[in-house]
Design brief:
Elements (H helix, E strand, L loop, with lengths): L3 H12 L4 H9 L4 H4 L4 H7 L3 H13 L8 H109 L8
Helix pairs in contact: 1-2, 1-5
Length: 188
């Protein structure tokens, strides 16, 4: 059997009526193609306000074969079972939502802790970098002081060499003078 929408369109087309509004009205009231043949005149008046459209649909609905297996009670029972299943699904979805919300909160808490650890580690790195800079500055100052001391040592050694040469020269001159005047040789 065709769908409700196709049946309503077919009835409208065969009668030269725009039946598109009837599809929405019937579907909004959970009317299926199986239920159309079981609607009373009062039901039709309540569902379809347009007289011509209502009459055409009611006339064609009378010709639909009533499905003996689907009594109204069976349909109501089936709809109740479907409703219960939907309620169970809704409860399951609510429980899943709650579980996911708890997991999200736990993940956010862990993320916050990790961020705090990263900040603490970052501060530690900054402290190490500052200490390294201080050590580099101290090392540079000590190198400069060592270079100045080495230069001063070289200058003093050069002066010492000159002084030693001058002393040796003076000793040689004193020995020469002592010999010249008949004195004994000097000892170093």
């Amino acid at each position: 059997m065709a769908s409700l929408e196709a049946w309503v369109k077919e009835v409208g087309d065969s009668n030269g009526i725009d039946a598109s509004s009837a599809v929405e009205l019937l579907q909004n009231n959970q009317i299926t193609l199986q239920l159309v043949g079981k609607l009373s005149d009062a039901d039709w008046k309540e569902l379809i306000p347009q007289v011509g459209l209502r009459a055409a649909l009611r006339k064609e609905a009378a010709h639909l074969e009533a499905n003996d297996d689907d009594s109204l009670e069976d349909i109501v029972s089936s709809l109740r079972e479907e409703k219960e299943q939907l309620e169970e699904d809704e409860e399951h979805a609510r429980q899943m939502h709650e579980r996911y919300r708890e997991q999200i909160q736990a993940a956010q808490s862990q993320l916050s802790n990790k961020q705090q650890q990263v900040l603490t580690a970052s501060r530690g790195v900054d402290d190490i970098i500052a200490s390294t800079h201080d050590v580099e500055m101290s090392t540079s100052a000590l190198k400069a002081e060592l270079e100045a001391t080495m230069k001063e040592k070289e200058e003093l050694e050069a002066k010492k060499v000159v002084a030693t040469k001058e002393k040796d020269q003076a000793f040689l001159e004193a020995n020469a003078l002592s010999k010249m005047y008949g004195g004994p040789p000097l000892s170093a």
